[in-house]
Amino acid sequence: MDSKHPAGRLPEPPNPIADDGDETHFCGTCAFSSACIAAGYNKPELAQLQCLVEHVGPFRAGEHIFRTGDPFRAIFAVRSGTVKTRMVDKEGREQVLGFYLPGEVIGLNAIYPEHFPCDAVALDTSFFCRFSFPAMSALASRIPAVQKHLFRLLSKELGSASLLAGDHSADERMAAFLMDLAGRYAARGFSATRFHLSMSRGDIANYLRLAAETVSRVLSRFRSQNLIRIEGRELELLNPDALRQLGQALLPD
Amino acid sequence: MDSKHPAGRLPEPPNPIADDGDETHFCGTCAFSSACIAAGYNKPELAQLQCLVEHVGPFRAGEHIFRTGDPFRAIFAVRSGTVKTRMVDKEGREQVLGFYLPGEVIGLNAIYPEHFPCDAVALDTSFFCRFSFPAMSALASRIPAVQKHLFRLLSKELGSASLLAGDHSADERMAAFLMDLAGRYAARGFSATRFHLSMSRGDIANYLRLAAETVSRVLSRFRSQNLIRIEGRELELLNPDALRQLGQALLPD
DNA sequence: CGTAAATTTGATTGGTCTCAACTTTCGTGG
DNA sequence: CCACGAAAGTTGAGACCAATCAAATTTACG
């Protein structure tokens, strides 16, 4: 054990799987929470919002939430678990487009083409809130706050392409990736310094446009620099400031 | 003259600057056309749509349409000219996010942050239709087709990040870039095989995450392979099929 | 417990960047 | 109209980071 830390094993991090028994907490951290609140928990409109939501799942690791070419009928908020979206070109090469954590929304890029342009694959056992898009649009017409919320969701996703931008080194991209995940977990109320990487090294590499071997090497280097602790897919950020510094060119602010 | 083609100079391509005297044609190719049509050219709503549109310009090459941090109040449809959007990090390094041609819309990524997250810089003398976003939202609430159109615009832009995706060779990225431009010009009624590159080699390189020298080398190679003719910024695609083939991994379908 | 998949680590290769020099284009003013 | 300087673009040579190839090891799972 070359780690300077006492424990031989990383303790289990808090499991970022929403408690099905705690609707209020989950909804409070969901990307739709402000829309739901705007609709009014105590107004008749809420009933309509509830109407168009359907809880779906579980999906096991590797199962598809939707597939490329499926007709677009709904968007999905991740309720628990993790999802990757990906495209597969005709030579069979996979391209990972993004990872989605509890509270985040998938499927928005299907509105225009009216068919899903990518696959969504569960990385963990996952549950979702399914929002019928026609019903959601109709509601948005009647409740400006819901419309505004949808515009904001779409616009927000437009701004999140920056991890891939620029010709940055493997270290910069990896540091930015870890800090991005940390920030997104923190935004949903989970630990920002200890979490589980639901995706494989290969998926991370693919997403960051690196080779899987490079991801492994960078993580090893970060560990030897005491920037992180990592055992398998359990991660602890030991020096978030240094990581933020490393990835600053790719991170917001 | 090492070219096998008879003419010593490339003829001037059709100038993709909308004819101000031909409103109908421009609006027919604008990204908002279907919204305008949906609003109904002969209904009272059209008056409202006209109300919230303001023609702005000219902006000369190098002038800003908006700057990072400006409060978000409107989106802009390019009426004529070309625009690049870019972010500048605190070390002063520029990152080109995209190029926008006549009929395309800029500013959508500012809805969520409520401030523009990037600069928009004219590459040509340019004119715009400015759409007040609050007014547009209000109209969208009353006219479902307008709302739908905004959703589609936003979603479409989500799907257009693919040129940057993947770790592809300089040749693949350049070929895909040229074919993407060609397709977008064609969609607006301009020539798909002869057009002017309004952006510098440096801007192309930055956008494609290459060095300017690499862009220059790739274009020279394409020329020597008779895939293109290029003189300065005047471009002719001599073998679009081969270029599409080269860039297929990055192009839709 | 055994096999396949994932991960780590090492050695080598290669494509693109960097540095550098030169040419061309463009805008400006004499 | 031409001269001039600055910016943009081209081309070459060498260096370097990450990809690829290869192999050992660990982990996951039936």
From TrEMBL, chains A, B:
SMART domains: cNMP (SM00100), HTH_CRP (SM00419). One of its GO terms (cellular component) is cytosol. Residues 168-241 form the HTH crp-type domain. InterPro entries: cNMP-bd_dom, cNMP-bd_dom_sf, Env_Response_Regulators, HTH_CRP, RmlC-like_jellyroll, WH-like_DNA-bd_sf, WH_DNA-bd_sf. It comes from the Bacteria. Its main location: cytoplasm. One of its GO terms (molecular function) is DNA binding. The keyword Repressor applies. CDD domains: CAP_ED, HTH_CRP. Residues 59-112 form the Cyclic nucleotide-binding domain. It is found in: Cytoplasm. Keywords: Activator, Allosteric enzyme, c-di-GMP, DNA-binding, Repressor, Transcription, Transcription regulation, Virulence. Coiled coil: none annotated. Homodimer. This is CRP-like protein Clp. It comes from Rhodanobacter lindaniclasticus.
